[in-house]
């Protein structure tokens, strides 16, 4: 009793418990296909039974041919051929079922992971490199999906096969059955150690494979810098180093796999030889017929291959559960907070087109415990106003924009939006619908200009798109393109200058007609005259808009209603004189 309890405890803790949880998670996706999986298992068992029946059939065929039994040779031969043909048909059906389940589960998990990544807490997700995300989204999801059928269902069919072969051997010769089972204790003793090592190797393999993908992804994204700094050779060598790392882990794992499978094969081979030797001895002493001997030869071969397949399920189960664990990490991340959703809805319904204010009251924020980005920040921006955030680089302007977008949350104080009736609502991902945002850098997607614009307003007419492009001073160059607003844009705005891409991004934000517009260094690539014209147009579109800009250039500061400087963790509202001083200093 104590021993059983100890075994259960061992199973429950550590690696086995983890693998159990991961397997349980994998099979939540299989629930929908339980009937197909059940059918798949039944077909697998049928194939096994037919294989065994045809082996027994061949015993009777040989005994009939050698005159040791009175059987209908033609009938037995027809039976064996029929079994063979039937198995081929069943195999075709199971292959089709497996492909269908595989692709559906793959797409379902991939879509769920993708959605999760989009709604997960922004800061937590920042810990994953995008190459690692891609590797998990494709490689790990694919491994899990293809293992839905090659793990538990295969375990069932292979076990049935193993037990079936043993049962037949037991029926004809119990001693041989005992010999056949001789390997089981050896396997049980070594399996736990092997599994642990295998799982460690699997984790390392996945990790280095993510490193290779991250490296490739980053190099291609920054290919211009790689060329500009004449770093082609350097990066080419770095790739080889990353590959070397992958190769070392891969070969290590391969060596381990070869040793383990050789060890298993040697054990299997000795068992098969022992069975064969015992059969020969029984034939020699006249205890069994030639037909039974043929059956034993076939069964000992089948037993060793079925044993091998059972053993090979261990690495595939480990690989599947390791991948499942890597995907499950995403689902453990909390989602972005959505606060006061009802209030958000009522503000949306009651104040359409009437504008919204933004307020930060005594807000404190830090990314980690070691450094506060700012504290006691008090900021107000009202409809019809342009409010600027200025300050030295790295002092917290973008951080404040992230706070307004609900990507990060205040550690202290309150960040709220307020409608014209004075209804206040906490900022979270739920209030993001009131914002249009133009971030730093190029944020244009591949497709056409119109595709990019309709991303934020799917039913926008061509005229509306042109109007937004005009307001962002972008239509001047768009109208000269051969296909006007339907002209193609390359990846990350390829084919356009930085300033042109910025203006298309601003136009996209304007088309959204959100009450609050956030421009984070969004006009940095424009000349001063265009920058001022864009801001003027934005405020004269006949829409009650609150505009918050972060900038290093004082050229637009004279157009702003209020200017906040963020410096050394302090946010202060600077007066006209200081603004004029800033313009002069510039
Ligand atoms: N994801 C992050 N995790 C941890 N720290 C961060 C993160 N993003 C920014 N920081 C830190 O927060 C501080 C403020 O950064 P932020 O990007 O807000 O500055 P900024 O004023 O917008 O700078 P710039 O003018 O150069 O764009 C910096 O010290 C930066 O190192």
TrEMBL record:
ABC transmembrane type-1 domain boundaries: 38-319
PANTHER family, per the entry: ATP-BINDING CASSETTE SUB-FAMILY B, ATP-BINDING CASSETTE SUB-FAMILY B MEMBER 6
Compartments (UniProt record): Membrane
Organism: Intestinibacter bartlettii
Major site of localization recorded for this protein: membrane
Source organism phylogeny: Bacteria, Bacillati, Bacillota, Clostridia, Peptostreptococcales
Name of the protein this chain belongs to: ABC transporter ATP-binding protein/permease
Pfam families reported in the protein's UniProt record: ABC_membrane (PF00664), ABC_tran (PF00005)
SMART domains: AAA (SM00382)
Record's bilayer topology term: Multi-pass membrane protein
């Amino acid at each position: 009793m104590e021993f059983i309890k100890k075994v259960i405890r061992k199973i429950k803790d550590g690696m086995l418990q983890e693998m159990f949880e991961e397997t349980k998670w994998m099979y939540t996706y299989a629930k929908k296909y339980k009937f197909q999986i059940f059918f798949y298992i039944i077909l697998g068992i049928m194939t096994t039974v037919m294989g065994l029946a045809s082996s027994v059939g061949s015993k009777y065929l040989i005994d009939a041919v050698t005159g040791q039994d009175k059987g209908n040779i033609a009938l037995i031969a027809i039976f064996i051929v029929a079994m063979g043909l039937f198995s081929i048909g069943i195999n075709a059906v199971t292959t089709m079922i497996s492909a269908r389940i595989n692709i559906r589960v793959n797409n379902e998990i991939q879509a769920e992971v993708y959605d999760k990544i989009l709604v997960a807490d922004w800061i937590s997700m920042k810990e994953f490199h995008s190459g690692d995300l891609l590797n998990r989204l494709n490689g790990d999801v694919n491994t899990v999906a293809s293992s839905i059928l090659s793990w538990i269902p295969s375990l069932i069919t292979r076990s049935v096969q193993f037990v079936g072969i043993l049962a037949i051997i037991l029926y004809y010769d119990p001693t041989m059955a005992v010999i056949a089972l001789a390997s089981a204790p050896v396997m049980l003793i070594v399996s736990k150690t092997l599994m642990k090592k295998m799982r460690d190797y699997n984790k390392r393999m996945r990790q280095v494979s993510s490193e290779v993908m991250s490296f490739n992804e980053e190099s291609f994204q920054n290919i211009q810098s790689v060329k500009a700094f004449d770093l082609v050779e350097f990066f080419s060598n770095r790739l080889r180093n990353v590959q070397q790392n992958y190769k070392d882990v891969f070969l290590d794992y391969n060596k381990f796999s070869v040793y383990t499978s050789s060890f298993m094969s040697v054990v299997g081979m000795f068992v098969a030889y022992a069975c064969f030797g015992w059969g020969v001895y029984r034939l020699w002493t006249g205890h069994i017929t030639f037909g039974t001997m043929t059956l034993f030869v076939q069964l000992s071969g089948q037993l060793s291959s079925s044993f091998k397949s059972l053993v090979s399920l261990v690495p595939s189960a480990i690989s599947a559960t390791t991948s499942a664990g890597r995907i499950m990490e995403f689902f453990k991340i909390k989602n972005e907070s959505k606060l006061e959703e009802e209030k958000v809805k009522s503000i949306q319904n009651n104040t359409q087109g009437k504008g919204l204010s933004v307020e930060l009251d005594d807000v404190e924020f830090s990314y980690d415990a070691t450094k506060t980005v700012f504290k006691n920040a008090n900021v107000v921006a009202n409809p019809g106003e342009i409010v600027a955030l200025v300050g030295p680089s790295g002092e917290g302007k973008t951080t404040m924009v992230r706070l307004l977008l609900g990507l990060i949350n205040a550690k202290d104080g309150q960040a709220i939006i307020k409608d014209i009736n004075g209804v206040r609502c906490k900022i979270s991902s739920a209030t993001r619908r009131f914002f249009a945002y133009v971030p730093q850098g190029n944020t244009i997607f591949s497709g056409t200009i119109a595709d990019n614009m309709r991303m934020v307003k799917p039913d926008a007419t061509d005229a509306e798109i042109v109007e937004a492009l005009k307001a962002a001073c972008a239509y001047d160059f768009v109208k000269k393109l051969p296909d006007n607003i339907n002209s193609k844009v390359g990846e990350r705005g390829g084919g356009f200058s930085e300033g042109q891409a910025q203006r298309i991004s601003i136009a996209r934000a304007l088309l959204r007609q959100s009450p609050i517009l956030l421009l984070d260094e969004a006009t940095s690539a424009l000349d001063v005259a265009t920058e001022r014209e864009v801001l003027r147009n934005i405020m004269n579109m006949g829409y009650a808009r609150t505009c918050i800009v972060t900038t290093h250039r004082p050229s637009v500061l004279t157009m702003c209603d209020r200017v906040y400087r963020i410096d050394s963790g302090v946010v202060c509202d600077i007066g006209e004189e200081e603004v004029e001083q800033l313009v002069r200093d510039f």
